[in-house]
Amino acid sequence: MISRAKQLKLSGFLGAVLVLAFAGLALAASSTTLLGYQIDSLGFVDNGNGTSTWTYAITADGNEARALSHWTLGIGTCYDIVSPADDSAYTTLTSGFGCGSTYSCQASTCTVVHGNDATTGITGIKFEDCSPQLDGSQPLPRTHMFQFTVDRVPSLGGDVTVGVKPGGEIAKGDIAGPACSPSAVALNGFSASGLPASEGWLLVAALIALGLTGSVITVRRARLSPGGEK
After folding, report:
1. What does residue 125 show for φ and ψ, rounded to 5 degrees?
2. φ, ψ for residue 95 (rounded to 5)?
3. More confidently predicted of 37 and 12
4. Distance of CA 166 to CAs 124, 128, 158, 169, Å?
5. Which domains does the chain have, with CATH numbers?
6. What would the pLDDT profile of 44-63 be if each residue is shown by its tens digit?
């Protein structure tokens, strides 16, 4: 038979595991791979002025049949894009956000387009005609790191649509981004500083874990009462 001390230790351990499991979900980056291009949502930061800045990494690892002509990210209609401006030139980031450690970031200059992308059918922000383009012809893996700013700060993340167009091919998927309402992937939203977008999720996870742990302890104590299991 398991002693009371061991039972309490076990219940405490299970509670800790649950807390860590939920915390891991809350801190996990949202990622999808389309036609060989890995797209990572690195979350957003609250700029303190009613705007939020979002960061995305797109990586080519050699499995791409064609160079990336453009990619488009859907943005909820409740947001307006603050920067970069429509029809402006944008240079991808080469420092911070894991550049030099997680990612091998390459500088590339792209054209920014706001609105509907007729090719993918996605309405949001499009980065096209990047020079150099991402493809499988240079030392790999290589990453283009993108940022943009919108005029709202969400409390939780949601699903948006992302699309890529390498050559004549098109592929679309879902990724965490600036949606107007939270969705099932809200736990994947986190700030670029590495903290959850809403620390309330961690509190909820902790409360769930503590509730389950308390239930286990109550059951064990009942069994250890006089006339019960010893």
Report:
1. -125, 135
2. -145, 155
3. 37
4. 18, 11, 26, 6
5. 26-196 (2.60.40)
6. 999 999 999 999 999 998 88
